[in-house]
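Subject: Interface between my chains keeps coming out wrong

I've been trying for a while to get a sensible model of this assembly. When I model each chain on its own everything looks fine, but I need the whole thing in one frame so I can look at the contacts. Pasting all components below, labels as-is. Any help appreciated, I'm running out of ideas.
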Amino acid sequence: MTFTEILWQLLPGLWQTVSLTGLSLLLSLPGGVAYVLLSQSRFSWLARLWLELFRTIPLLVWLFLLFFGLPLWTGLDIGGVGSAVLVFVLWGSTEAGEVFRGAWRALPPAQLEAAVSLGLTARQRWRYLLLPLLLRLSLPPLMNVATRLIKTSSLTVLIGVTELTKAGQQIIEREDNALLIYGLLLLGYFAICFPLSLAARQLERRWSLL
Amino acid sequence: MSLLQLEQLSHHKGSQPILQDINLTVSRGDVVVILGPSGCGKSTLLRCINGLEPLSGGRLQFAGQTLDAGSDWTLLRRQIGIVFQHYQLFPHLTVLDNLCLAPVVSKGEARPEVAERALALLAKVGLADKATALPRQLSGGQQQRVAIARALCMQPQLMLFDEITAALDPEMVLEVLQVLRDLADDGMTMLLVTHELSFAQAIADRIVFLDAGRIVETGAPAQFFQQPDTMRAQQFLSHFQQLQQMKRKSR
Amino acid sequence: MLDWAFMASQVPDYARAMLTTLGLGGLAVLLSWVLGVSNAICWYFGYARWLIGAYVELGRNTPLLIQLFLLYFGLPQLGILLSAEACGVLALTFLGGAYFTEVYRAGFAGIPLEQAQAATALGLSKPQLLQLVLWPQVWQRQLPAAAATGCFLLRETTVLSAIAVAEIMYTTTNGIALYYLTYEFLLLMTLGCLLLFVPLSLGLRRLEARLA
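Reply #2:
Try treating it as a single job with all components included. I did that and got this:
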């Protein structure tokens, strides 16, 4: 099998990885807002529990629990992809939520005062000062969450999702060159995650409020 | 013609009185410097005029409007400018955008006119070439001058300055004070809180001396600095004079 | 409903699995900690920075699963045959080393340069500077971050189930495949994980609180 043929075979797997991760991330954003609202409400203990459950129990365990357990308890079979998205969104919401809370805490109060002193109303302050600043403070950490999610998505091969790793394994079954294929996969994940981490660091430096 | 009048203004923090029975009249074109020892409430007084601190009692009259403890300060803030010790420029906007934001957004002016005015103001404070720079690319003195231009871009009738040179390196203090002097010469009504006593002496039309939240003495600068009436003012000035006359023992 | 007797019969296997996790994970934490600290020290004194930097980026931007598969399935092609447990510890050490390097690199960077300069001006040699001035501070300040990394590594040992290392996950999937008693095994797995990882979390939280 030529090199290009191998890459071509890996493409559907790559697509699955990207779409799975992308969807989970997208849904984690409103999920994160929900988490923040919950943590500020009377039921803040619930948010705390939610956070702790996903920080203490490894994500692989969660994947198995939902993949094997959900059909048992509810009769619903959402498959490997469905379980993965569910787990990732539940986890991603706590991560995004904590990013949002951190960004909120990092807002400089004195500059908000300057905006008040210029006669800007609350809505104007939100639109022109708070929201832009919150975005700049949240984006780099969110990119780091994305990187971690991409890496974790490799675990979904263990619950039968045909993502990048699975595509690689299928090639190995035919070509029997595990060293090359897994090496390629390693480089592949690196090629996706490294630029993301680098960009996140650059943005953080460029947008720092100092 | 009185522009600003404070009548029995007071401000409490919980049960602690910070300002009590403040009566002050400022006419158009006046330059008033507020002096006093640390913690006497000078900054709080400025912030009450701008509504950043709420009034606990008394009234404020400004250009025909009367405000008290329950009023909404938003409209007034657009006519009174304030510059802070730590400049507080918006870090994500360029210098030009910092100046244009409030007039466009809160007064509804058209951006081209505001930009023209902003560039003229930047030229006036000596920073015309920095219009597209970001705040963190500027020195402290430059940022403070931008902050002054930003407040001026709202075309206020009164400018408040809260110890605006206190956080600057000595070389930069002069460039900022020169801007203030030019502003005063142009006829702007100004209220300053400062520790730069020589500057206060040079620029003020009137000195207001505050101690423990009350106005203790007011007067022309020449008279205040040469022969203060009250004991507290004399004590305050003596510290300044002692510092100026500090010498080593001859060896 | 639930077969409690059966579950009880599986407890010895699960106990063994938990010990495996702690044993392999603990070893990996130790080895990667040593690796991380040595890397950070080399970095601080300016040795092999490009190599250490490349290692950290590679370790942190690739999934543990792939690192594991590369070792377990790829090394035999080169004639190197390692047990699943050995591959597991190696992969975990590779990953953990990258994370610990970051933790301690940041730790050293957080000590103001003036301190090191003052120490050198007072006549201390580099080893003395490290031992007497830098390390005590770095150790203390980075303790929470290091402990968190350790906990993280222990949680990652679950990935080793993919190459049939007999820890909790593998015991569960194996059991489900053999006995079809999914409910029971999921429950055992959950209990095992809670028993293993909750004390770790609580301990970490207590440590952070004590040092804050």
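Reply #3:
Confirming on my end. Chain C touches chain A through 40 residues (CB under 8 Å).
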